[in-house]
Each structure stands twice: as structure tokens, then as C-alpha cells.
UniProtKB/TrEMBL annotation:
Name assigned to this protein: transketolase
Quaternary assembly: Homodimer.
Family in the record: Belongs to the transketolase family.
Keyword Lyase set for record: no
EC number of the protein: 2.2.1.1
Keywords: Calcium, Magnesium, Metal-binding, Thiamine pyrophosphate, Transferase
A cellular component term, taken from the record's GO annotations: cytosol
Protein source organism: Polaribacter reichenbachii
Length: 678
């Protein structure tokens, strides 16, 4: 312990944060100035990692919730050698590796992309669950910690309730969260928007809560020591901090705790940029320097951290020698590879709902993919993830030997937790709910796409055929929203999402195969509540024919020189089969039917293949239980899409099919009317 260099280090972080924002003329300086003391003590005395191996699977992890405090992370990691001077000097600039909000960059210590408040710490909860899951299978030596950093805004976001409830309920003692409580948010002091007792709230969820002066280094040490020794509860450290700690005016007077310091360069406030840098011990002429004593301290620190990691690796090596089979399995989990899976061997009864077919697949996966956590938002017996649950048990406080997370009614929380599980590595996350409630999950789905995470989303009750539950539960516009993500590219230039709506049981098995093999982007399986008539088999097994769905779209019915090509996905494909039977038998028409499980994947195929399935020189008719826009890009301007352009109604599904025109007979009439126009 060196009080002088500890203070210098914290002040160096403050000065760097101020300088980054000032040079960029954009950002949030006040919060990082308040959190600097905690960050320095955490990383210098408690955080375990290997500076020479940043992706070491058994490192501690830091999940930032308050992404607007990115300069706090960049400054701290600059001291640790993860960034260069030019990196911090180019904060928020084109091509820089220091974006305005942190983006996943594990090599430099950034574990998660954050920005939308509340999601960052919830991903941390997911990472802690993954760590507990793995430790239950491989031993208590796997005892790394997950740290979260949250601000007033993150605590206020509703998702914090779900994260707090689940972390406390599961007793995640490996999760330690620092709450930077400075009583200031972007536009107001916090007392203008809340009077809740945050400590009491978290204690009621089963957390250990410690309140400290987070500018007092001894109090920070004591709190972190106590948190690390906790055996039954997650810990919330409420750190009372001062917004803009160290800011002074041009006259040298203190200018701390002001709301205006939150979200703009301090030079635009009542504080003085140059005088503040001087007050913090920085050189205004070279504000991105690391102080001499701080540089020496951190060089020695890096050597110590490397040696500590080496000692831990020796411990792990001894375990590996004593447990070669477990070690091999652990390496396989961490590799992200899949075991050999026989999807064709999964038997399905005739005419199943695709949610029921999915249940059969999940039951198989429960016995063959050991590193999968499936979660449901209080719907396992309806979304049929209970097929998986029946083969395992729910995760419980003190017992993570199971593989099922009962999330309760908390779709967004559940999805964010899945992102955290994926970020941790070694575990495959699956989350399920009704398709209409994907609306609740959208912020996390978006971050799944941005972070390129292989989360599997299972959405059942996929259309108006939910029936009696009425318009609130009948997804109409949701498929269009989700499929937009197939058109949105991630930073690697790939579609940011894979949306799959299978047409029968065989396609459901293929969809699961595609989902599991899709490791670098999220996948959504959109499944029916009602039974679907299996599509006809032309020659080989239905599964073998359905494998063509891996190209996004294929012909389930094909004739030479068709008069019309019918296009759909999901349960509407079977409706087209019924319509085609009428068109052929009663009107002597030749009909092809295309099942397009994913337009995104279909568009990745060669132009020749696309034209062989959906020829542009033929009349094209699409059928969708969602908005017509779902298929308009496939049929083109000359084609026609029959879809739903209004909310649903409460009535039995078969009645709605008839009223809305989704029967074979009524669709055949729609096709005939269309053909009169071409």
C-alpha cells in the first residue's frame, strides 16, 4: 500500500478522462472522475487476470453497465498497458479503438458492449451464472469473480429488478457490483426522480450490501475484501462519490458535484479545464501522459499479476493431470465446438406444432449437449422448453448441477443474461418465450447482434393462431421487425441475425441444426402453437429434403414450367400445399411451392440458385400470417403477397383462419384473382 501513488493513480485516471472528453469535444467526464478511486484499487489489488494472456478463460471479468463512463475504463486500461497514448487521445474518433461507449474487445479488457443502461450489469449476472455452471462440473478451483459497475441510471432502469432478483435468488456470491452513487444524473439530481432505499431493495433480493465513501481507499479495500469472502450472496458496494471529483474553477475554487459535469466537456461548464488538470497533477501541455510514479507502479503491478496468474495456472495444471477426462471435456466446452449430433434420428409424430417438434429436439439436446443452459420466462410448459427441463433440473442456490434457468416473467433480463453467458464462454445459452414478447427483448437482441453472440432465441405462438388470447398475444408485426435484423449487417459485414420459421417438424430439426452451428450471430426460432400438417416427401426422407432449408429457401413442391410459384414460411407453407391441391385438381394449374425459412440466408446464395427457386419470369404469390412486407422483397413488384394488415381478434384459431382467409380454399381464390392480373 502506497497512499501517495494510489492517489496519484486515481488522479491520473481523472485527468485522462477529462482530457479525452475535452479533445473529443464529446463525452461524460464527471462520472469517471468519481469512479477513479474504486477502479484503481480494484485493478491494482483485487482483480485477477494474466496481462500476457488477456483471453485466459479463468480470468476475473469486469462488466461495465454505465457505458457513458467509457473513459474510466480506457484510462485504467491505459495505465495497465492495454492502450497506447494515441488510442486515448483519439477517443470517439473514426477508426479509433476507443469508441464513445465500450465495445467488446477482450484483448484490451473490454468484456461487453454497453450503453443502453441496465444491460451491462445484467450481462455480468449471466457471466456469473456461466461461471457457477462450469465450476459445478469442474471444481471449486474455477473461482474467478465477475465485477459489475453500475450508475444511478442503471439502477433506475427496470431491468435492474430482474437482474437483482435473479442474482440474489441464485446466491451468486461470485458477482460483485459497485454502484457509483453520486446523486447526479444527466439532467437532474437523483432526488428529483427517486426516493427509494436502494440498499434495502437489494437486501430484500438477497444481496449483501455495503455502503462506503468511495474516495476513501481503505473503505474500498475493506468492502472488496468482504465481498470476495462472501459465500452465499452477491454483493452490492454502494460507493458514495462526487461527480467531477477534482474539478476547479479558473480561480482555483472547488467545482464538484454539479449536474453540468455529467455529459459535456468540463471546459463547457463552470469548471476550468487547464486548472483542473493542474489540480490533478497533470501537465496541460501533455495531458495524455502517465505520471512517472504511476508508470513505475503499474509496471511492477503487471509483473506481479503475471506471476499470480502463473501460480494459478500451475494449480490448474495439477488439476488437469489428476482429471484428464474432465480436462478434455472442459477444453471442448471452451472451444465452442459441438459434439456429433444426429438430428435425423430425432423422431417426430405426424402433424406436430413446431413448438412440440422443438421440444423433441431439446429433449435430445439435453442428453447430448452438456454445456447448454436453457431458460424460459415462466412459460416452459407452453414454449415447450420443458422437453429439455424434463431431462435435467433447474439451477438453484448452492446447486448449479442442473441446466435450466427459471427466469420468471422477465424477458429482457433473461435475454441479457443469455448475452452474458455467451460472453463468458464455455456455455451455450437458449432463451424462450412467446413471439409477441420478443418486443420486450428487443434491446438485448440488438446487443446480441452487435456483439456477435451465438444466443439461441426460441419464440413460440408465432401468429394470430394464438386465437382466444386475442390481439395482445397475437404477433402480427413481430416477424417483420425480427427479419429486419437479417438485413442489418454487423461489423464483420455479415447479417446480424438469423431468423428461422420452420414449416414442419423436419424443418424444425433442421432449424435447430442451423441455430447450433451458427456460433457468431444470434438465431431466432419462430415456432407455431398449433399443429402443422407435415409437408409431402418427394423421394428421400423428409428430413433429408428439409436439409435444403440450410440454403434459406428451397422448393417443397416442384414441377416443370410452373404457372405460378407460391412462397411462404412456417405454417403457411402447409396452407399453400392445400391451396395447390385445389389449383391443380380444379383449375389445371401447375404449381411450385417455395419454403423460405430465412430470407437472410437465401439472399446469401448464388443468383442462379435464388432464381431456380423463385424465378423472376413467373407469377409469384406469397402468403404470410404477418405483415405482407415479410415476403414483398421475395415476390417483387409484379408479385402479390397476401398477409395480415391488422391486429388479431379473440376467437378460436380455426375460426380466425377462416375469417382472415388462411385456408387452402380461400388462398386458392386469392391466387386465382392474382393470376387474372398477370
Amino acid at each position: 500500500m502506497n497512499k501517495k501513488v494510489d492517489q496519484q493513480s486515481a488522479d491520473n485516471i481523472r485527468a485522462l478522462a477529462v482530457a479525452m472528453v475535452e479533445k473529443a469535444n464529446s463525452g461524460h467526464p464527471g462520472g469517471p472522475m468519481g469512479g477513479a478511486d474504486f477502479m484503481h484499487i480494484l485493478y491494482s489489488e483485487f482483480f485477477n487476470y494474466d496481462p500476457t494472456d488477456m483471453t485466459w478463460p479463468f480470468r476475473d471479468r469486469f462488466f461495465m453497465d454505465a457505458g457513458h463512463l467509457s473513459t474510466l475504463m480506457y484510462a485504467q486500461y491505459y495505465l495497465l498497458g492495454n492502450y497506447k497514448k494515441e488510442d486515448v487521445a483519439n477517443f470517439r474518433q473514426w477508426g479509433s479503438i476507443t469508441p464513445g461507449h465500450p465495445e467488446v474487445d477482450v484483448q484490451r479488457g473490454i468484456e461487453n458492449t454497453s450503453g443502453p443502461l441496465g444491460q451491462g450489469h445484467t450481462m455480468g449476472v449471466g457471466a456469473a451464472i456461466a461461471a457457477k455452471f462450469l465450476a459445478a462440473r469442474f471444481g471449486d478451483w474455477m473461482n474467478h469473480k465477475v465485477y459489475g459497475f453500475i450508475s444511478d441510471g442503471g439502477v433506475q432502469e427496470e431491468i435492474s429488478q430482474g437482474a437483482g432478483r435473479i442474482a440474489g435468488h441464485l446466491g451468486l456470491n461470485n458477482f460483485i457490483m459497485f454502484y457509483d452513487s453520486n446523486d447526479i444524473q444527466l439532467s437532474t439530481p437523483t432526488d428529483e426522480v427517486t426516493t427509494e432505499d436502494t440498499a434495502m431493495k437489494y437486501e430484500s433480493w438477497g444481496w449483501k450490501v455495503i455502503t462506503i465513501d468511495a474516495h476513501n481507499h481503505d473503505e474500498i479495500r475493506k468492502a472488496l475484501t468482504e465481498a470476495n469472502s462472501q459465500t452465499e450472496k452477491p454483493t452490492l458496494i454502494i460507493g458514495k462519490t462526487i461527480m467531477g471529483k477534482g474539478c476547479v474553477t479558473s480561480e482555483g475554487k472547488t467545482f464538484e458535484g454539479e449536474c453540468e459535469l455529467h455529459g459535456q466537456p468540463i471546459g463547457h461548464t463552470g469548471a476550468d479545464y487547464t486548472k483542473t488538470l493542474i489540480n490533478l497533477g497533470a501537465n496541460p501541455e501533455s495531458p495524455f501522459d502517465i505520471y512517472e510514479d504511476v508508470s513505475e507502479f503499474y509496471q511492477n503491478l503487471l509483473e506481479r499479476k503475471t506471476l499470480e496468474a502463473r501460480d494459478k495456472k500451475v494449480e490448474i495444471s495439477i488439476w488437469r493431470e489428476a482429471n484428464p477426462k474432465k480436462a478434455e471435456k472442459l477444453d471442448f466446452f471452451l472451444s465452442g465446438e459441438l459434439p456429433t449430433l444426429d438430428f435425423e434420428g430425432i423422431a417426430h409424430k405426424a402433424g406436430l406444432a413446431s413448438r412440440a417438434a422443438s421440444s423433441g429436439v431439446l429433449a435430445y439436446l439435453a442428453e447430448h449437449v452438456e454445456n447448454m443452459i436453457v431458460s424460459s420466462a415462466d412459460l416452459s410448459n407452453s414454449d415447450k422448453t420443458d422437453g429439455f427441463l424434463k431431462k435435467t433440473q433447474a439451477l438453484k442456490k448452492g446447486d448449479f448441477s442442473g441446466s435450466f434457468l427459471q427466469a420468471g416473467v422477465a424477458e429482457l433480463t433473461m435475454a441479457c443474461i443469455a448475452n452474458g453467458i455467451a460472453l463468458h464462454g464455455g456455455v451455450i445459452p437458449v432463451v424462450a418465450t412467446f413471439f409477441v414478447f420478443s418486443d420486450y427483448m428487443k434491446p438485448a437482441i440488438r446487443l446480441s447482434g452487435i456483439q456477435e453472440l451465438g444466443v439461441k432465441y426460441v419464440w413460440t405462438h408465432d401468429a394470430f393462431r394464438v386465437g382466444e388470447d386475442g390481439p395482445t398475444h397475437q404477433p402480427v408485426e413481430q416477424e417483420a421487425q425480427i427479419r429486419l435484423l437479417e438485413k442489418l449487417k454487423n461489423h464483420r459485414g455479415n447479417p446480424s441475425f438469423l431468423a428461422l420459421r420452420p414449416a414442419d417438424s423436419a424443418e424444425t430439426s433442421v432449424a435447430w441444426k442451423m441455430a447450433l452451428e451458427n456460433k457468431n450471430t444470434p438465431t431466432g426460432l419462430i415456432l407455431s402453437r398449433q399443429g402443422i400438417k407435415d409437408l409431402p416427401t418427394k423421394e428421400a426422407s423428409r428430413y433429408q429434403e428439409a436439409l435444403a432449408a440450410e440454403k434459406g429457401g428451397y422448393l417443397v413442391k416442384e414441377v416443370e414450367n410452373p404457372d405460378v410459384v407460391l412462397i411462404a414460411n412456417g405454417s403457411e407453407v402447409a396452407t399453400l400445399v392445400a391451396a395447390a391441391e385445389i389449383l391443380e385438381a380444379e383449375h389445371n394449374l401447375k404449381v411450385n411451392i417455395a419454403s423460405v425459412i430465412s430470407e437472410g440466408v437465401f439472399r446469401l446464395q448464388s443468383r442462379e440458385y435464388q432464381n431456380s427457386i423463385i424465378p423472376k419470369n413467373k407469377p409469384l404469390f406469397g402468403l404470410t400470417a404477418g405483415l405482407p412486407v415479410n415476403l414483398e422483397g421475395l415476390v417483387g413488384d409484379a408479385g402479390k403477397v397476401y398477409g395480415l394488415e391488422h391486429f388479431g381478434y379473440s376467437a378460436p384459431a380455426t375460426v380466425l383462419d377462416d375469417k382472415f382467409g388462411f385456408t387452402g380454399e380461400k388462398v386458392s381464390l386469392q391466387v386465382l384473382e392474382y393470376l387474372k392480373t398477370v
